Amino acid sequence: GRGGGKVGGGGGGCPPRSPPSPTALSATVESDAEVTTDAGRSDDGDDDDVEIVFPLAGRKVEDCPPRMRFAPSPTGSLHVGGARTALYNWLVAKKGQLDFPGEDGAFLLRVEDTDLARSTRESEESVLSDLRWLGLDWDEGPDMPGAKYGPYRQSERSSLYSKIAERLIDEGKAYPCFCTQEELDEMKARQEAEGIPPRYDGTWRDADPEKVAEKMAEGAPFTVRFKVPPGSRVVIDDAVRGTVSWDAESTVGDFILLRSSGVPVYNFCVAVDDASMGVTTVVRAEEHLTNTLRQGLILDALGAPRPRYAHCSLILGEDKQKLSKRHGATSCNQFRLDGFLPDAMINYLALLGWNDGTDNEIFARDELIEAFAVDRVVKSPSIFDMDKLRWVNSQHLKMKSIEEVADLVREQMNMVGLLNEGDEGIEVRNFVFAATALAKQMMETTKDAALNAQTVLGYGLPDTFDALPDGEAKEMIKGGNFYPIAQTLIGDFESDALPKPDPADPLAPFLEDISKPIVEDNQVGGNAYSYPKAYKVHMKSMSKALGVKGKHLFHPLRLALTGEMSGQDVTKQMALIAMASTEGTPVNSDAAGLVTMEQRIEKLKVFCDSIPEEFRAPKAKEEKKKGGEEKADATAAAQAAAAAAPVAADPLDSYDGPPITALDIRVGRVTRVWEHEEADKLFCEEVDVGEDEPRTIASGLRPYMSKEDIEGRLVLVLCNLKTRKMVGFPSHGMVLCASNADHTEVKFVSPPVDAKVGERVTVPGISFEGEDGAPYAENKVGKKKVFEKLAPHLVTDDNGTAEFMGRPFLTSAGVCTSPIPGGNVA
Asked: Where do the TRNA-binding domain residues begin and end (predicted)?
């Protein structure tokens, strides 16, 4: 227990006492659920050696350089809510250091570890490690013993808390309370019976000093209570929630500062630490708002200026419940393991309750520091949207080069066991580079690249036709083109006629520009072999020999070679398989599920043998009947069949997605084009869409077109997209293009030359007039993912006409077309 002439259980000069009773440990009426069970003991000398200094005393907080703190409890991992709190404090501190160079502004890390039963150094290091991963470096903290406001662990500050409690008692602002648990329970029961909210009734508030001295001499356990001034109110101007006030006397009563064990309660520690560390602004979660009342009273009693407060709303899951493990990953370390980038996490966390007043959603770290202001944090709860986080991460990935991303992809490959342990040679670097390049445009996390490599190295074609699930692949095979194409492929492979990647230059398919014209002799620039071009030449010959082209050739080829109906460029996939199949490969073939080219061909043979005879050739056209009577009979039969046949179903009847009228697609003219200085795949364009000023739009067309191909052209522009910064360039809209299945060819969807700049593109049979036909607002298009839901239905037909559900894109001058038939429009 605690007794004698000094307050507190630590430091020199405290006489040893018997252990406190269990009742004394909890001798309080009001709830102190956040208070810990043991404060630890400091061995730093007598309490009289502790100097009490409040750095901001006598100064206006708003005039001081920001000193921000993040104060985690080391009882687990750093989760999303804590990471956002740390980020907001870090951003304010970093901006302050720019505005007040050379002054005392800082982001400090304070560990609130007084709950020794649950706090561990392992958890502390885990939290610090997560902060380092996020790039939230601190200026003062527990790993910096020389920092002037330390120590930065509460368990090492016991002497300070005891010293200040003594001072408050000496000044008549606190007092010892000797109430037993039984007395407190009786007090609570009496108040509840009278309909009064339970709180301490002040039994020892103004006790006779002689009675107090008598109890002290007996060694009776006591707590130290704060003496709430009569009629006191606490009012704060919260940066997020506005003015908040409490009637202190009626709300809390005289609350505990130190328990009978000498353990300081949470609010006492926080108030003392904020004052003694010179904290200027406290940004924290709204669940701490009620703590501000007690902390404000303590700060006022100490004569220390209150910091400014900003209480941020909770982060909720998509079910509008408080974010927790049941919503999936919430710890920062799990996001790291799942392949998210620190800069993307910082970007997304900043948006959970804040915006800069524009439609911009992608920020670099320096841009966030410049733009962030606590005054723009909103009070409404934020919804954690994993899809949105993945999208933000994908945008940051696209800003990075393959080389910058490759090391992160390698980490993911090691996590899934894709690479042999200990391999460090050029083969590892080449394979990781190739796998990263293959997945670069589609991946949302670095883990996607590792998983994509596993998919590519595997082979999803089942053993038999009957084992193939009903769907697109089975219907394609039933069309009859697959079998003869597969047989030709098998023969070409076994006769060594099928082009193969060059083992001497395994990265060539991932580096060379294959948009140049095909060279018929398989040679590029003299004797330089190009596997992608040789493959194209071979497929062109196969097309002629079999009389099959377009998707009727390429879809069967893709399924036969990869076992999938869709994916990245086939030649790049084959090159990756070749790299994984060579002698001395760095790939763990068992973990990767590797199926070599030889094994694929054998599996393909077995599969083809199981295809029913009726599906082994394209459907033959019926021979024309000869003779007048036969022709007449055929005509009559055809007319009768037509009359009896039901009208073909309109595909729009079964469509249940957003209306095509939601999109504001207009005719535009590109008036200016230049290369983005920092992104090697982006063009920057000015496009006239009939508005007062041209739109600025960034497009990833540099791998496919030259500036001369673009400037002056009529194009289609999706106009109702919010402005987004693409590597710092404000892009307001999207130029629509068509691409083939492999995304190796990309061409504009072009309106007729006589189309009017600014006119809206329509679709026959659908009204674009009135309120129902009006395009959605930019906000709604983004939040509802309208374009993403419509995109699968925006295609080009066999003639290259752009269409939606079989209906062409139409302007006043006619339909819109692309040189790419059977493509996707985006």
From this structure: 659-762
Indicate the angle between helix axes 386-399 and 342-351, nearest 10 degrees.
Answer: 130
Give the pLDDT confidence score for residue 14 in this predicted structure: 31
Q: Which two tokens stand for residue 486?
A: 């597969």
From 148, 211, 322, 325, the catalytic residue: 325
Query: What backbone torsions phi and psi does residue 790 show, to the nearest 5 degrees?
Result: -85, -30
DSSP 107: E
Nearest to 615 by CA among 479, 468, 474, 461: 479
Cα gap 721→695, rounded to integer Å: 12
Q: What are phi and psi of 777, to 5 degrees?
A: -65, 155
- Rounded Cα distance between 722 and 808, Å, is 26
Closest CA to 73 of 134, 116, 133, 119: 119
DSSP E strands in 54-113: the ranges are 67-70, 106-109
**Distance in angstroms between the alpha carbons of the first and the last residue of the chain:** 74
Residue 785's pLDDT band, with cuts at 50, 70 and 90, is confident
Residue 419: strand, helix, or coil = strand
Nearest Cα residue to 680 out of 741, 730, 726, 737: 726
Largest CA distance in the chain: 131
Tens-place pLDDT, residues 739-769: 988 778 899 999 998 899 999 999 998 999 8
Q: Are 560 and 482 in contact (CB under 8 A)?
A: yes
Known catalytic membership, residue 95? no
Cα–Cα distance, 439 to 443 (Å, whole number): 6
pLDDT at 20: 33
Please, which pLDDT band fits residue 637 given cuts at 50, 70 and 90?
low
Say if residue 247's pLDDT is above 80: yes
Contact in structure between 665 and 735 (CB atoms under 8 Å): no
Q: Which runs of E-coded beta strand occur in 218-304?
A: 223-226, 233-238, 242-247, 256-258, 281-285
For residues 180 and 260, what is the distance between their CA atoms, to the nearest angstrom? Answer: 11
In 753-825, where does DSSP find H-type helix?
778-783, 786-790
Average pLDDT over residues 535-541: 94
Distance, CA of 476 to CA of 645 (rounded, Å): 25
pLDDT(240) > 60: yes
Tell me what percent of the residues of the chain surpass a pLDDT of 90: 66
Of all residues in the chain, the percent with pLDDT exceeding 70 is 88
Is residue 770 helix, strand or coil? coil
- Residues 6 or more apart in contact with residue 622 via CB below 8 angstroms: none
Of 285, 400, 394, residue with least CA distance to 347? 394
Q: Which residues of 476-485 are buried (b: 16+ CB within 10 A; e: fewer)?
A: bbeebbbbbb
* Strand 223-226 with 174-177, pairing: antiparallel
- What pTM was computed for the model? 0.71
Give the separation between CA 800 and CA 624, rounded to whole angstroms.
30
Q: What is the pLDDT of residues 587-620, one digit of tens each?
A: 999 999 999 999 999 999 999 999 999 999 997 6
Name, in order, each residue with C-beta under 8 angstroms of 149's C-beta and a sequence gap of 6 or more.
Answer: 55, 108, 140, 276, 277, 278
pLDDT at 772: 84
> What would the 3-class secondary structure string for 446-476 be?
HHHHHHHHHHHHCCCCCCCCCCCCCCHHHHH
Separation of alpha carbons 268 and 495, rounded Å? 83
Distance between CA atoms of residues 664 and 732, nearest Å = 13
As a whole number of angstroms, the distance between CA 174 and CA 271 comes to: 15
Cα separation of 324 and 187, whole Å?
38
Phi, psi of 543 (to 5 degrees): -60, -45
Domains of the chain and any CATH numbers: 400-513+531-618 (no CATH), 657-825 (2.40.50.140)
- pLDDT given at position 329: 56
Q: Which residue has the tokens 């509802």?
A: 784
Average pLDDT of the chain to the nearest whole number: 86
User: Could you tell me which of 317, 290, 273, 1 has the C-alpha nearest to residue 114?
Assistant: 273
